[in-house]
Design goal:
Number of domains: 1
CATH class: Alpha Beta
CATH architecture: 3-Layer(aba) Sandwich
Helix content: 25-40%
Order of helices and strands: EHEHEHEHHEHEHH
Number of strands: 6
Number of helices: 8
Strand order of the largest sheet: 2-1-3-4-5-6
Length: 229
């Protein structure tokens, strides 16, 4: 069995991959990685930098996989975490994933600095709507908004401050890039640029939907990834 280590998108925790845990098969098992400041780690300090995140996630990943084979999946914010965590693992002796799947993200060198309001919740919600290109239903509920906005602000700031380190070699690992075919956040040329970040096989795949295409049909995306891997 291969474990699929799953890294969440901005504002989310490991629980977002709950549907995939129920779809695991003898070939592929979903193993979400939790990030601090959310769900059971609510109240823990958020990461201050992507470098800090990559180092911590690498440790969590090692604990989750042990000596078993694994692949790595990240959506949006999680794609950058997956890429930088793999660089961290390469630098510090692994273990390395068999494959990487980056979803809903332009390549690291095409990230744009985008911020949301730090002190006006209504404006922050509007900023996020513009950023994603669609309404975020959970932010329409006051109680959920109070929980989610601090996490979203922290994650968006983390991405806005991110620049890939100069001189990083392409990953020696097969990489697949996926996007929703109507994703306004991820233009095709900047998405296909992921091909420059691997020296192994590169594949690209477009799925029906926008930036959050995977949440439209978790089962279809899971089956697709299982076949890819």
């Amino acid at each position: 069995m291969t474990k699929l280590i799953c890294l969440p998108y901005a504002g989310a925790g490991a629980g977002v991959y709950r549907p995939w845990r129920g779809m695991s098969t003898p070939r592929l098992q979903a193993v979400p990685i939790q990030l601090p400041g959310r769900e059971e780690e609510y109240g823990a300090p958020f990461y201050a930098t992507i470098a800090e995140a990559a180092e911590d996630i690498a440790g969590r990943l090692r604990a989750a996989v042990g000596t078993e084979p694994y692949s790595l999946f990240g959506h949006s914010f999680g794609s950058i975490l997956a890429y930088e965590t793999t660089q961290q693992l390469i630098e510090h002796g692994g273990p390395l994933p068999e494959q990487i799947v980056v979803s809903g993200s332009v390549s690291p060198r095409h990230r744009e600095r985008r911020l949301i309001s730090a002190d006006d919740d209504e404006q922050a919600v509007a900023d996020l709507r513009d950023l994603v290109g669609q309404d975020i239903e959970s932010l329409n509920h006051p109680d959920l908004r109070a929980l989610l906005l601090p996490v979203l602000r922290a994650d968006v700031k983390l991405l806005s401050d991110y620049e890939p380190a100069a001189g990083q070699a392409p990953l020696p690992i097969p990489l697949t890039a996926i996007r929703g075919d109507a994703d306004v956040m991820v233009p095709v040329p900047e998405w296909r640029d992921w091909s420059a970040f691997t020296s192994a096989a590169f594949r690209e795949l477009q799925m029906p939907g926008g930036h959050m295409y995977l949440a439209d049909d978790w089962a279809l995306v899971w089956k697709t990834i299982e076949e890819l891997l």
